[in-house]
Amino acid sequence: MLREIEARLVRREEQPRFQQLMQAHHYLGALPKIGETLWYVASYREEWVALLSFSAAALKIAARDRWIGWSYRQQYARLKLLANNTRFCVLPPWQRPNVASRTLALCERRLAQDWSAAFGHPILLLETFVDGQRHRGTLYQAANWSHVGDTRGYRRIPGGYSATVQSPKKIFVRPLHPRARSLLCQASLETVEGASGAAKFMLTAGAPQHPPPFVPDIPDHRPRRGPLRGPSRRRSGRGGSGLGGLRDRRGPPADRHGRRRMFPFAAPFLLEGSPVRLTRPAPRATDGTAPRATDGTAPRATDGTAPRATAGAGAGMRRTASGSIAAPTARARVARASRIYVEGRHDAELVEKIWGDDLRDVGVVVEYLGGIDDLPAIVEQFRPEPGRRLGVLVDHLVTGSKESRIAALVRSEHVLIVGHPFIDVWAGVKPSVLGIGRWPDIPPGTPWKEGVLAAIGWPTDTATGWRRILGAVSSFTDLEPSFLGRVEELIDFVTAPGSA
Question: Which residues share a beta bridge with 429?
């Protein structure tokens, strides 16, 4: 009987019946078809068995967003690549073993193709909510969906969210692509056909103080309310990007039509929220002496001390966080075909902080995999060749480990797999940087990160803990040599002569 169950899209003329049955048999009732939504019906010999609805994903879910690991900009740009299983109703005569899981599996197999045909873009990840007071989510767990956390229990209402906590919902996710997590977080989605999700620019509370240069060029479609709508460059941080009205009057405020006007300044300028006094820049000294201010005195910081020089500054030399001599500023170059893959998001963020300048200079992109269980398939999909090398950094690559067995399955002269001995990349940071003598030993069976945070007396939220660790790292000297060496080895491999 199960093999004869089929799933298909609900036809237009069947939609009223779909809504009537959903209203009658689902405890939440029916939902209107708004935005990107697909309705499915499972049938057995033309008799309806179950009803399913898939719609656009929820805007913000803390547990889901942490699990994916994407940034705010990526989240808002790529949310369309997720779908939410908003309704699932097995009709009363068909509430039998395995009917629900069979129906869900049939929909999962065709959903990505149906979505792309209907809305012009694919789906990489599914999500759903389960009311823990009514259900345990056994169906989704049996269908290989992952429970990534719970909601906080608030619900959307007109104008915002409810003031009281109601029933928190369990959050389940199901990737429809083997690399869904890493694809949603990587810089470009060119490898996913039809997924244009380029990151959007998002303003934060502090962004108006330092807007990007392209902001003045954005068209303003608001109706005009007078001869001058205000300067596009302002003294304070409320949306302006320049300064005007100084003694030399080189940069008076101007609106987007080029009309200029002088404004009185009644308060000091602010830098990062603190008042500062502006002076003309001192001319660069050519005799090796310190530059002088316009009044002949040496420039000093606000606390009265002389500014500190950067190492190598006397010779005009700057070093990156990895210790390399910084290359002269140049236009961004096209990324190489060769890549570096790291195992997790934290690995990628640490590599970016220390080697980011170097990697951008040589055009190497670093992506994270979210685990290496599928490493052989990922390497095969990458298709390494002489001008297209792949370097992979693996956590806990020691003899006898699961990671070493998986790495041994990959055989290609154009792939280099190296690893560090630490259970997690956190331990690649020297403990002295964090003010502890050593990384604590965590007993087997205890989650390592949570155990470490509890042992050193930090809050057990791993996201907060990692931000604190990453914030303490400023240069290569803060990392263990066994981690440093492996990253340098990968960079040398993918940038060797002959690699594109």
Answer: 479
Domain with CATH 3.40.630.30 in the chain: 2-185
Tell me how far apart the alpha carbons of residues 235 and 240 are, in angstroms, rounded to a whole number. Answer: 7
**Distance of alpha carbon 132 from alpha carbon 52, whole angstroms:** 20
Average pLDDT, the chain: 79
Our CA angle for 81, 87, 92, nearest 5°, is: 150
Query: What does the block give as tokens for 471?
Result: 């914030």
Of 95, 104, 88, 89, the C-alpha closest to 142 is: 104
- How far is 336 from 62, CA to CA, in rounded Å? 34
Q: How far apart are CA 334 and CA 336, in angstroms?
A: 7
Instruction: Report the largest interatomic distance among the alpha carbons of the chain, rounded to a whole angstrom.
Output: 94
What is the Cα–Cα distance from 172 to 170, expressed in whole angstroms?
Answer: 7
Q: Which CATH architecture has domain 2-185?
A: 3-Layer(aba) Sandwich (3.40)
Q: What CATH code is assigned to 339-429+473-494?
A: 3.40.50
Q: What is the pLDDT of residues 72-126, one digit of tens each?
A: 778 888 999 999 999 999 998 888 888 999 999 999 999 999 999 999 999 999 9
pLDDT (tens digit per residue) in 185-229: 887 665 565 565 444 555 555 455 556 666 666 666 555 544 443
Alpha helices, DSSP H, located in 366-479: 375-382, 402-407, 448-455, 462-472
Among candidate residues 85, 86, 103, the one with its CA nearest the CA of residue 94: 103
Q: In this predicted structure, what is the pLDDT of residue 191?
A: 56
CA distance 350 to 322: 11
Q: Are 387 and 337 in contact (CB under 8 A)?
A: yes
Distance of alpha carbon 432 from the chain centroid: 29
Long-range contacts of 315-319 (CB under 8 A, 24+ apart): none
pLDDT at position 290 over 90: no
Helix ranges (DSSP H) in 55-208 = 62-68, 72-78, 99-119, 138-142, 180-185
Query: How deeply is 247 buried, as exposed, middle or buried, from its count of CB atoms within 10 A (0-12, 13-18, 19+)?
Result: exposed
Does residue 70 surpass a pLDDT of 80?
Answer: yes
Location of each CATH 3.40.50 domain in the chain: 339-429+473-494
Mean pLDDT of 22-35: 89
Q: 205-233: buried (b, 16+ CB within 10 Å) or exposed (e) per residue?
A: eeebbebeeeebeeeeeeeeeeeeeebbb
Q: pLDDT, tens digit, for every residue of 362-402?
A: 889 999 888 888 888 899 889 999 889 999 999 888 888 88
The DSSP bridge partners found for residue 7 are 42
Task: State the pLDDT at residue 76.
Answer: 82
Each residue of 52-79: b (16+ CB within 10 Å) or e? Answer: bbbbbbbeebebbbebbbbeeebbbbbb
- DSSP-derived letter for residue 331 is P
Q: How far, rounded to the nearest angstrom, does the alpha carbon of residue 127 sit from its chain's CA centroid?
A: 17
